[in-house]
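Reposting from the mailing list since nobody answered there.

I have sequence plus structure tokens for a pair of proteins and want to know whether others read the tokens the same way I do. The first protein:
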Amino acid sequence: MSANARANARLPPEVNRVLFVRNLPFKITSEEMYDIFKKFGAIRQIRMGTAADTRGTAYVVYEDIYDAKNAVDHLSGFNVCNRYLIVLYFQQNKQTKKMDLKKQQEELDAMRAKYGVEKKDK
């Protein structure tokens, strides 16, 4: 895509430079990640999950939004070590909402403990 065509192209609001990648093989290295994702443009940063609950996930940050869009279009469903990648645009508001729900649940549990209220199962 030429620079002039890029300037005139409208992108959906969810498109951004940061990609969230799921279903990665646990044994994949950062060098292999760069090899896969650099084909679509200059990469600013790759962060791979190392904790038990974040293994198999990564964040890929591109320099240009159009490179990120191209990577999502081509790598969603790409087979790596017999696993199909799930490549999504990172959406901060969804991550914040998850954290808010977790915080609310912790506050609710603390109040239940403080006042001695048992949690009822439905």
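The second protein, same order (residues first, tokens after):
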Amino acid sequence: VKVGGIRYLVPTPISESRSYFEGMRWIHRTARDERNNPRWVERMKNPDLPKRDSIMIWDALAKEILDAYHNTGRAISKKIEYHRICDQNRAFAHYRRTK
């Protein structure tokens, strides 16, 4: 929301279906991300090594879903980060109702 030339990040409630969508999207993106791949880290340390196959998507998705079940992993850390940002910006919630 832009008020007086300043942009504020205003937390707004989202529907249950939207929250499921966001969770699935975060899990999928973190599973797809190459930086989570240990072979990528090894390649960055030693760029002269031959290129190997990366982790298959179903293995990465299974690992990320198990991490989410145990409240660990990158998708959960993203959720916690979003909640932290919303808590910090709760003072701007009254701007949500104004235009």
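Reply #1 (J.P.):
I read it the same way you do. The two ends are 8 Å apart (CA to CA).
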